[in-house]
Design brief:
By secondary structure, the chain is mainly β. Helix content is about 10%, strand content about 50%. It starts with a helix and ends in a 10-residue tail after the last strand.
Length: about 90
Amino acid sequence: MADTAASLAVLTLVPKGHGVVAAEYKVNFLEPAVGDHVEARAKVRRYGRTLSLVEVETVSVADADGSETLCAVSTHTIMRLEPPKDETAQT
């Protein structure tokens, strides 16, 4: 979940047609995810031409009172992928 949130956060910043892939990530698990649902919140800390650094907080949420428990904190290095070259284009 955290990896997906990190990748999608960077994907909102890359030019149209480019893709992204996780190059590296580290997750620190803090508490069990006990609650009604889990949310991953990503923040792009550095957006680079090739690599970007993203921090993600994963929380469990109790629907009854909206209380949140921080379950994990992670850092992700996301690599931008160039769009595929048109094989029919002449050079």
